[in-house]
Each structure stands twice: as structure tokens, then as C-alpha cells.
Write a structure and sequence with these properties.
alpha+beta; globular; six-stranded antiparallel β-sheet; 9 helices; single chain; 15% strand; endopeptidase fold (from Nostoc punctiforme)
């Protein structure tokens, strides 16, 4: 009989132990982001870490953003440009306009005279002297086959200024009004002593350059500061009507 009671007694103990067991509860002490609890908790207690919160109530104005991007990308206008800078721009534009309108002869002599195109005032004179440029030298000559210095000056003055000059350099010097080298301008005459006395003449152009019939190079452009001509320079003259 005792053996029959043992299973029953064991069942009673098993049931009693199960009733004492507590149900397991899984809790999470951290609030869920975006919950009402997080939204309501505006300030965290000192010493505690703040939860990462996403900004849910932000709206983007795409049109305004696009306008701002365009403003940033657009080049800035310098409204406070200095007068000197404006003057440089005007000079640059004016120079470009002068170069575009320049004739081939003006461009050629701008290089020969080492100056700017806009500085060439008497383009008509350049046209006439250029007709003789490169003509070989010939003593006593007066044609395109060969010409000397005084005949070259005589031919240019007749074509450019409708003025008739004497045939020789010495007589042309006598006809001219003597001027200082600082007064020289396009069309004035410059005289040299190459063979004794006044024996060579040329036409001043600009930038210390003159054109003449050289015995070694023919009609060409030379520099007054060339040592050869500096040593032989006599003076300058202006022919007036």
C-alpha cells in the first residue's frame, strides 16, 4: 500500500512546485525612439546620456534651395571696382578695337618701330614710305630700281605732303627749320654726316626710329640710338609750307 501512495505523493509535490514558479517578464528599460515617452522627455536628467533622436518634423523647400544654389554658383559682380581697374579695361577694349581696324601696313610698322598700333598717328605717311620699303640703294637714283637718301625724301614729301624739296641732303637741311631732338614728330627730317658735312637724310617716324635709303640695306628703318647714327647725327629739321 505504501508503494501505491508514492506516485500520488510525488505528483502532489510536482504540482506544488509548478504553482510557485513566477512567469518570466522581459522588459526593456530603454524607450523606443519616436515614442511618446521620448517626445515628452525634453530634458535628460544630469549624468544620463541622451537618446539619439531623429528629426521627423523637418520639411525641405526645394525651390528655395535651388535659388540659393544658383546664387552661390553665380559669379559675383565687383561693384566697387577701382577707377584704375575700370581705366585698364577701357584701355584694353580700345586697344583691341584699334588692332582690329589696323591695316597691314600699320601692323607692319608697329613691329618695325617697336610700338603700339594705336600710337601710329599718320597712317597715310606710312603708306607712302612703305611703297619704297626695300628698294635698293643707288647713288643718284630716283626710281624703284634704285634710289639714294635725298631722292627718297624728296619723293615721299611730294606724295604725302604735296611739297617739293631740293634734291640734295645739304639743300634740304637749309630749307628746314632746325628743331631740337626732343621736338621730333612724324615727318620731320634727321640729318647725318656720313661722308663729310651734311651727306645723309632720313624721315623720322616714331619711337626714335627713322626711315631712309641706307647705302648698305636700301630703304629701311633704323634707330637714332644706333651707335653708328648717334656718332654721325647732326640735327633735325622741320619743313613748313
Amino acid at each position: 500500500m505504501v508503494r501505491s501512495l508514492i506516485p500520488a505523493f510525488g505528483l502532489i509535490l510536482f504540482l506544488a512546485s509548478c504553482s510557485s514558479l513566477k512567469p518570466l517578464q522581459f522588459t526593456n528599460s530603454k524607450p523606443v525612439a519616436g515614442s511618446a515617452e521620448v517626445a515628452g522627455n525634453k530634458s535628460a536628467a544630469p549624468g544620463t546620456s541622451r537618446e539619439v533622436r531623429f528629426l521627423d518634423d523637418i520639411s525641405v523647400d526645394q525651390q528655395a534651395s535651388l535659388v540659393n544654389v544658383k546664387k552661390e554658383a553665380a559669379p559675383r559682380k565687383h561693384t566697387n571696382a577701382s577707377p584704375a581697374a575700370a581705366s585698364d579695361v577701357n584701355t584694353y577694349l580700345s586697344r583691341n578695337s584699334s588692332v582690329e581696324k589696323a591695316s597691314p601696313v600699320q601692323l607692319k610698322y608697329a613691329i618695325l618701330l617697336n610700338t603700339e598700333v594705336e600710337e601710329l598717328v599718320s597712317s597715310e605717311l606710312l603708306e607712302y614710305v612703305d611703297e619704297w620699303y626695300g628698294t635698293p640703294y643707288r647713288l643718284g637714283g630716283s626710281t624703284k630700281k634704285g634710289i639714294d637718301c635725298s631722292a627718297f625724301v624728296q619723293a615721299v614729301y611730294l606724295s604725302a605732303f604735296a611739297m617739293s624739296l631740293p634734291r640734295t641732303a645739304r639743300d634740304q637741311y637749309k630749307t628746314s627749320r632746325i628743331i631740337s631732338a626732343t621736338e621730333l614728330k612724324e615727318g620731320d627730317l634727321v640729318f647725318f654726316n656720313t661722308r663729310g658735312g651734311i651727306s645723309h637724310v632720313g624721315i623720322y617716324l616714331q619711337n626714335n626710329k627713322f626711315i631712309h635709303a641706307s647705302s648698305s640695306q636700301g630703304v629701311t628703318v633704323s634707330d637714332l640710338f644706333d651707335p653708328y647714327y648717334m656718332k654721325r647725327y647732326i640735327g633735325a629739321g622741320r619743313v613748313e609750307k
